[in-house]
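Following up on my earlier thread - several people asked me to post the actual chain instead of describing it. Fair enough. Here it is, all 210 residues.
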Amino acid sequence: MAKKKVAILDYGTGNLASLEAALKQIEVNFYLASNTKDLVSADALILPGVGHFHTAIHKLKSSNLFRELSNVIKSGLPTLGICLGFHLLCQSSEEACEDTGLGVIPLKAVRIKVSNTKAYKVPHMGWNNIEKSIGNSLLLNGIHKENQLFYYSNAYGVMATNQLDCSYSLYSHERFWVASLEYKNIKAVQFHPEKSRGQGTQLIRNFLEL
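Reply from S.P.:
Thanks for posting it. Predicted structure:
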């Protein structure tokens, strides 16, 4: 795994310390990618999960990364989107309705709305179990059902859907939302594996070993 070059997309929207620490723990050879040249030598790509949708899209476009990034992912580069990174891979997000996402996943991120505001808070912050898995998840390989507990920090998410012909999992926050999905060469998670203890580290390892 140490020989694989992993590019972390740098769109200047948040602290990457937790992700970098998790990758160092499993001895991953990673670097920050902020231009198209940085993507050329990557064996895998991670879109980190902190920041605002509009700010991230604006950064990608101003650095001329937006179109090339979409092309590189469509060409088959193994890609992992985390939280905001998941939303950027989608068609759009209600966090910034005026912007379009990369569109490599045919889904949309929407604002989480709950009716029982005493039981369910927005943003959704804290630990939550994966409650349903559809298909054979490679991301969750080796993580026993009782350990499929991950850390979330999000006010936007992707609603549960049967539109995708792929493996995915669901978590519940008053209703079902997509926790993870595996769509072609693209893997995406709503939670933060880099903040989810050993099970999160195992998920990252699974992605890099695919």
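The first strand starts at residue 5 and ends at 9. That should answer part of your original question.
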